[in-house]
Specification:
The chain is α+β, with helices and mostly antiparallel strands. It contains 3 helices and 6 strands. Strand 1 and strand 2 form a beta hairpin. The longest helix is centred in the N-terminal third of the chain and has 12 residues.
Length: 108
């Protein structure tokens, strides 16, 4: 896996080990998941997304590329789950040691 900031690494590890509690813990209390414009707020929203779109869907995330510029890490990744399979991009914003936003923009 490419070199990642610790909170981003924790997010990827939590998905790949199926650990919803660790996934939620990687986020700041006001953190958000923005998946194609569907925005879920706070621990409840983050846990809900993990259950419906990631961990609950048996997801694995293989990071193919990573580039960090300031607080934002752009990830190129391969995703496998019962909901979606393929390559995608995400932008992970970090403040301190927590994620404030995990954004997956629409594919074009």
């Amino acid at each position: 896996m490419p070199d990642l900031p610790a909170p981003v690494h924790a997010l990827v590890d939590a998905i790949n080990t199926g650990d919803t509690a660790a996934f939620v813990a990687a986020f700041a209390p006001d953190g958000v998941v923005n998946d194609w414009g569907r925005v879920l707020f706070g621990p409840e929203g983050v846990a809900s997304w993990a259950q419906t779109d990631a961990i609950g869907a048996g997801a694995t995330m293989t990071v193919l590329t990573a580039a960090t510029d300031g607080p934002v890490t752009e990830l190129g990744f391969e995703w496998r789950s019962s909901k979606f399979n393929g390559e995608s991009t995400a932008f992970v914003t970090v403040a301190g040691d927590k994620i404030t936003e995990f954004r997956i923009p629409p594919s074009h």
